[in-house]
Here is the input.
Amino acid sequence: MLLGGGFSAQADESVQGEGAAMDQHDHADGAVDMMTPHQKHLGPHMRWTGLRTANADDAQRADHIVQTLRQALAKYKDYRVAIDNGYVPMHPERKPRHYHFANKQQRFLAKVRFDPAEPTALLYRKAGDGYELEGAMYTAPRDMSEDQLNERVPLSVAQWHAHVNICFTPDGSGRRITRKQFGFKGKIATESECQQAGGRFVPQAGGWMIHVYPFESTPVKIWTH
Here is the structure.
């Protein structure tokens, strides 16, 4: 079932930037606070949509998304099935809290439509020699408005986030940053500072993202980032 939130294919979404954002997703800089159940990662490199007033219609719509996703993910409890279906583990040699198994085709399709049964990435935790399924991640184009994002997932239930104000190293790789001022964990958060450091400033790396944990027991846990 396709839901709202259509978007023009003219969007100049950076596949490389979105991939980098997913790759660095669990390493974003900023204090980690429990300000709200949905908004834990704060700081100069994280942007969040506003949390709207709860209502019954949104709760029902969010529940439909969860039920659809839960059924769609059942087969991916075996991570090998996920790999066979195009979900590729990103940097399995690292030890993040969540391993992102990203699907390139779904990432492209998410630019123009939203299907709750087809997430852009699957979230796993390491379990012995394999992986245990935790949830999924949806993505959306970077220049979608909050109203458009609300059409995909109601903003009274969950918050989308984006990685912003990133200063990449001069070579533009953005990978394996060792200097503390650069990258998704870097101290630099303005274009002027980035220019002075000889880096490459990116206002927003990739599109909007949202995590969902459909096997959790309560809506708060299901939609908590």
